[in-house]
Amino acid sequence: MGNLIEALEEIDNYPDGDDPSSLFRHVTGEEVTKTGSNSLVGYAKFKPIDLIMTFGFPTESDSYKVSGSYTFQHFDGAYLQIYEWKNSSLLYDDGMKPIDFWKQDKEIEFHIAAANGWHWMELEQWIQFQIDKNANKINTEGFTSGYDYGN
Predict the structure, then answer these.
(1) CA–CA dist 137, 38 (Å, integer)
(2) Domain containing residue 72
(3) Which of 67, 134, 66 has the alpha carbon at shortest distance from 98?
(4) I need a surface site. Which of 55, 98, 104, 147 has the fewest CB within 10 A?
(5) In a domain, 11, yes or no
(6) Is residue 60 part of a domain?
(7) 48-55 helix and 120-140 helix, angle to the nearest 10 degrees
């Protein structure tokens, strides 16, 4: 029987080298329902607007404590979700409207849920990698907001 720590250290978390882009994939549509039973495993800070700009609008959630979420699948098949928790007027009348929450350009703590605690830190790094890659694409390929500044 081998040493578990040594075995875990030998796992190649980045099968394609230093680029973690193949580690996860964003899950949408009907597949979101295949995630099974998940519970809180960690936290990560992101700007809500960065998530929207990178992955599109969040999937509607319970419309009570959660206004939206994103689902991802690790290359080993495990599903993970990130979601805002009790940050909007859905739960508290004096809270921020969900649309205003998701437009924020400041870091907010999101919850991460999974069937087990594996991969949540990898997911945090992968999401930030995707956000940075998307921001670089926007900045270098000349994309604009589409707003007409009157010129």
Answers:
(1) 33
(2) 20-136
(3) 67
(4) 147
(5) no
(6) yes
(7) 70
